[in-house]
Design goal:
This protein has 93 residues and is mainly beta. The chain has one helix and eight strands, in the order ββββαββββ.
Length: 93
């Protein structure tokens, strides 16, 4: 089953997909801000601790699309620019 939703992201991580419900996720950035997306089953604090304070993820430029396989864990995303909000369209299957 394919499901498409819009999310208003902020500069704080939000869960936008969970491997319990889908295995393939597409994020389209429909704003002038860039998006940082992370597919992982760890929290941000756990990722930072494991990677010398570097949050491993994927950078999606404004107007572009990111595609993710989600075999386990959750997909979280945020707007890169501090204090900003922006719309993304997420398709999950």
């Amino acid at each position: 089953m394919i499901k498409t939703d819009s999310f208003e992201l902020t500069d704080e991580y939000q869960v936008i997909a969970d491997s319990k419900n889908c295995s393939l996720v597409t994020i389209q950035s429909h704003n002038k801000f860039n998006v940082w997306a992370v597919a992982d089953d760890r929290t941000q604090a756990e990722r930072l601790a494991a990677n010398n304070n570097v949050d491993i993820g994927h950078y999606i430029k404004s107007g572009e699309t990111g595609r993710f396989e989600l075999p386990s864990g959750k997909l979280t995303a945020k707007i890169v620019q501090k204090g900003k909000k922006g719309l993304v369209v997420v398709t999950r299957s």
